[in-house]
Design goal:
By secondary structure, this protein is of the alpha/beta class. The chain has 2 domains: 146 residues, no CATH class; 144 residues, no CATH class. The chain has a 5-stranded mixed sheet. Strand 4 and strand 5 form a beta hairpin.
């Protein structure tokens, strides 16, 4: 933990796990095999692969990231995430080279995961942090395909926090990563490290505390059967907007259980609302959070 804090204080780079839904025609790639594996979609005019989001020296690969063991892990996680969320496995490419501290989910239907980000995640939480990032990126694919999030904001926050919740759900679910909280906490730590305080920026992803609470809410939903993307979206914002962020509705004598959420899970979530609200405001410290 101390090593992690020191790294976050001294690093000069900005990490982004994000989405890109500009579907302009692809430019020609210097890696034809990778191009074919990703359906021919490699670059975009305004939100592009290599020339915009990646350093010019980065190379695209669909066969390796770091080494065979790590490649197999990420490919396996990608397939398992898609299975839990009832979609076909999302085509996955790897950006190889220095400065690839990013992961991008493209509206054209594929994901690029940077080698530098993979190494950084391994150093700060291990493989579960890698799995969290990949689940977050697959969640953006769910958003593209289902016209969600239903919550509209002037920044990217709603989309990013919901993707964090999808990721938390995957990390905790028995058919997902199946992590108890002690195991899941490093992924939370990594997720929170990607928060920002640029609340008026279009690219604002949510503060560290908000990302922490969104991931925790998703993890708390782990015992519920996956209800589908739109139902998950509706339930997430019903809980998150009105309870976690606003701390509202606490005086209600009756709260309608969201559709697709079991009665037992609903009661469990409601018992955690004060905790979740305090997480979102920063009243619960990082150390306290890890010991929940």
């Amino acid at each position: 933990m101390n090593k992690f804090k020191a790294l976050m204080l001294t690093t000069a780079v900005v990490i982004s796990i994000t989405s890109c839904d500009n579907n302009e025609n692809p430019e020609i790639s210097n890696n034809q095999n990778a191009q074919l594996s990703l359906g021919g979609h490699i670059s975009h005019k305004d939100c592009g692969y290599i020339d915009n989001n990646w350093p010019s020296n980065a190379e695209l690969s669909t066969t390796r990231i770091i080494n065979a063991s790590e490649t197999n892990f990420l490919v396996g996680q990608n397939a398992n995430i898609a299975s839990l969320f009832n979609i076909n496995t999302v085509p996955l490419g790897f950006a190889i080279g220095n400065g690839t501290l990013n992961a991008i989910s493209y509206g054209a239907g594929y994901i690029i995961f940077g080698e530098s980000l993979y190494n950084y995640a391994l150093d700060n939480g291990g493989r579960i942090s890698v799995a969290m990032v990949q689940a977050h990126e697959v969640a953006h694919q769910l958003q593209f395909r289902n016209n969600i999030p239903s919550r509209n904001e002037s920044t990217a926050r709603a989309s990013e926090l919901e993707a964090d919740a999808f990721a938390g759900f995957y990390i905790g679910h028995a058919d997902g990563y199946n992590a108890d909280w002690t195991t899941a906490a490093p992924a939370y730590t990594f997720s929170a490290s990607l928060g920002d305080n640029n609340v008026n920026s279009p690219g604002h992803h949510g503060t560290a505390a908000q990302r922490r609470s969104a991931f925790r809410l998703g993890w708390l939903l782990r015992d519920n059967a996956y209800p589908g993307a739109r139902s998950f979206d509706s339930s997430f914002f019903r809980y998150y907007d009105q309870y976690v962020l606003a701390g509202a509705l606490r005086g209600e004598t009756e709260f309608t259980r969201p559709e697709g959420i079991s009665e037992d899970v609903h009661e469990y979530i409601m018992s955690k609302m004060d905790e979740l609200h305090k997480i979102s405001t920063g009243e619960i410290s990082e150390e306290e959070f890890l010991n929940l």
